[in-house]
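so my prof wants the structure for this chain in the tokens format not the other one, which i didnt know existed until like an hour ago. anyway here's the sequence
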Amino acid sequence: MEIERKYLIDKVPIDLNTCKSRRIEQGYLSTEPVVRVRRDNDAYFLTYKSKGLMVREEYNLPLTKESYEHLREKADGRLITKTRYEIPLALCMPDDSGLIIELDFFEGELAPLILAEVEFPNEELAHAFVAPDWFGEDVTFSSDYHNSTLSRK
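here's what i got, hopefully its the right format
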């Protein structure tokens, strides 16, 4: 189960050079249901996501590089590329929850879009979450900012 909140970001007040980062490339074989292939640095996955906004089922299956490259060619819409930075929430505000901000900088046609996602262990924490003051609009309940939707625009 994936439980996450998502926000638009205008400016990042943190030095990202100190944060762990990953290069991500993903394409969508289907957007209803969501079936995607992803390269995450040197790891490859096939993912299924159920319908939903803040709470969705998610299943990841490992792929070989060859399988990923074969399936990537079958993706519909645009291939999404982004750099993801992992920022402990405690760097931004007093926090002992261990939550991580995943900050995505989109490239290509989607630049200069920046989205922040925070995943939660349960819905109660997700609903109670108070975002850092540099987070912009909460787009958690808008499917417009799902990567599967962005791949089609």
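also thought this was worth mentioning. The two ends are 27 Å apart (CA to CA).
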